[in-house]
Design a protein that fits this description.
Elements (H helix, E strand, L loop, with lengths): L1 E9 L5 E10 L4 E5 L6 H8 L7 E6 L2 E2 L8 H5 L2 E5 L10 H6 L9 H14 L15 H13 L5 E5 L7 H16 L3 E5 L3 H7 L3 E5 L2 E3 L1 H5 L1
Helix pairs in contact: 4-5
This protein binds adenosine-5'-diphosphate (2 copies).
Protein name: Cell division ATP-binding protein FtsE
GO cellular component, one term: plasma membrane
Function: Part of the ABC transporter FtsEX involved in cellular division. Important for assembly or stability of the septal ring.
Length: 223
């Protein structure tokens, strides 16, 4: 489903940020992406979203060669992916419902369809009764749940998260990562960048570890 084949990335005027990365994640699998700050985790996720271009190598996602995907195909490709950020990027002047509905408003759905999908997404993250609230009255963990509802409301095949628990305490981090695992159990392919070692140990999921742009795969670690 996700396949990085000898992927190298450099930003203009900089040394390689990712070097010859090989990463394979099968459909429905969940894995964690770890490594110190600056190791290249966000860059790897940005390549998957085609927010950045691959410099060398091939990136395949469910049969699509993302490394050579033409500009006009990128928006449709991105709609197959849901993404959650550390700072959740909620619009503070819109209520929870409208923050989540945002992702659907380009899709040509009727108001009634949007209504029922947003309700279902909010139920899944345990916020079924908070649709009318503004983000400011929610706790940090609840705000992050809104971010997750927004990421999954269009039922993406792939769910990516960049340090989704970076601002949360340990018990909230556990709740949020368990929520990601629920989506994985329902068939979504999930890749989460995190530096939270206690969660890495607890979850017992495959770990891809980046150090200075080089990836150490779960297979290598076992060998
Ligand atoms: P991580 O997410 O693991 O902290 P990043 O992917 O954000 O790592 O960054 C990896 C390296 O690439 C860092 O040295 C960072 O400064 C550099 N970098 C990230 N984005 C850019 C950019 N747009 N232009 C130039 N350098 C960048
Ligand atoms: P930074 O590391 O500089 O904070 P981010 O990776 O958080 O940058 O996000 C870069 C920009 O790309 C943001 O404005 C974000 O909203 C946008 N973005 C991220 N994912 C998608 C997506 N799937 N489709 C469209 N835009 C996206």
């Amino acid at each position: 489903m996700i396949e990085f084949i000898n992927v190298t990335k450099h930003y203009p005027g900089r040394h390689h940020v990712l070097r010859e990365v090989n990463l394979h994640l099968r459909k429905g699998e969940m894995a964690l992406l770890t490594g110190p700050s600056g190791a290249g985790k966000s860059t790897l996720l940005k390549l998957l979203l085609r927010l950045e271009d691959v410099s060398r190598g091939t990136l395949m996602v469910n049969g699509v060669d993302v490394s050579t995907l033409g500009r006009r195909h990128i928006p449709a490709y991105r709609r197959r992916i849901g993404v959650v950020f550390q700072d959740h990027k909620l619009l503070m002047d819109r209520d929870v419902f409208n923050n989540v509905a945002l992702t659907l408003q380009v899709g040509g759905l009727t108001g009634r369809q949007i209504q029922s999908r947003v309700r279902a997404a909010l139920e899944k993250v345990g916020l079924g009764d908070r649709a009318q609230d503004l983000p400011a009255v929610l706790s940090g963990g609840e705000q992050q749940r809104v971010g997750i509802a927004r990421a999954i409301v269009h039922t993406p095949e792939i769910l990516l998260a960049d340090e989704p628990t970076g601002n949360l305490d340990n018990s909230l981090s556990t709740e949020i990562l368990d929520l990601f695992r629920d989506f994985h159990h329902h068939g979504t392919t999930v890749l989460v960048a995190t530096h939270d070692q206690s969660q890495v140990n607890r979850l017992g999921l495959p770990v891809f570890h980046l150090e200075q742009g080089r990836l150490h795969t779960p297979e290598e670690d076992k060998a």
